[in-house]
Amino acid sequence: MKNILEAKFVVEMGKTTANMYRLGWDERNGGNISCLLDEKEVAEYLDLNRVIRTIPTGFDATALIGKIFIVTGTGKYFKNVEEDPENNLGIIRIAKDGTTAELLWGFSDGGRFTSELPAHLMSHISRLSVDPKNRVILHCHPTNLLAMTFVHELDTNSFTHTLWQMCTECMVVFPDGVEVLPWMLCGTNEIGEATAEKMKSARSVVWSQHGLYGAGKDLDEAFGLVETVEKAAQLYMLIAHLPRVNTITDDQLQIIADAFHVTPRPGILK
After folding, report:
1. Domain boundaries, the chain
2. Per the CB 3.0–4.6 Å rule, which of 205, 234, 235, 250 could disulfide with 198?
């Protein structure tokens, strides 16, 4: 067997969580990540017949039976993942009953996966139904985006339009827009279900006064999505109190979409 600590999916999780902590997106133990892994690749590092223990997921994930994920742990600080991945990460497989996770590696101190795993699994099901290449769900607390949810109306079309106007690349990176949820209690199946429903139409979902869920084909794409949404929110917060002399017009947003061959979310551009 190869050394699991040298596996690309473990190394990338360490680098990504370290960057997210450094950027202030994941203070303390805030935020969580789950990545759908390729079974053949995992088998190069682990004996897939060896189950360390089983953990109830709190959700019927029948649609994901047999799927293997690497996930961050509950109560774990992102700043510690890179230094001690075996304690702060876990590799799990959804068991045949659909409601149990089989721990194949990690959580070495007896811990378990993030409390928001049900929300992640629900979002994975939604995104995979839309785009089978979407294998990553990433949740974090970007500072400026959170601030924006206190001062901007919480309407998906309006919120998306404002972000699109902040910088040219926004239309290119998230033409599907950002879905917006009102404040809801985190760590519940209710917010997971609401997020998963929104994930059917967009790769990013804002949890008002809390954070952001982002999806992508890999960690780089999901990270880049969040990075771009947060940059747009930062620009908005810098200018929201000032008179706007210039802006990117709807006609110009359409020009960007045409040039980069993307389709803007319907109903936003006039």
Report:
1. 1-114, 116-270
2. 205
DSSP conformation class of 174: -
Catalytic residues, by residue number, are 116
Hey, what CATH class is 1-114 in?
Answer: alpha beta
Sign of CA dihedral 106, 191, 182, 257: positive
What residues form DSSP beta bridges with 205? 179, 213
pLDDT, tens digit, for every residue of 75-84? Answer: 999 999 999 9
**In what order do the strands lie in the sheet containing 68-72?**
53-56, 100-106, 89-94, 68-72, 32-37, 136-140, 211-216, 204-207, 179-181
Task: Kindly state the helix (H) or strand (E) to which residue 197 belongs, with its residue range.
Answer: helix 189-198
Return the closest-CA partner of residue 108 out of 129, 124, 123, 87.
87
The 10s digit of each residue's pLDDT in 91-122 is 999 999 999 999 999 999 999 999 999 999 99
CA-to-CA distance for 103 and 112, rounded, in angstroms? 9
Domain boundaries 116-270, corresponding CATH code = 3.40.225.10
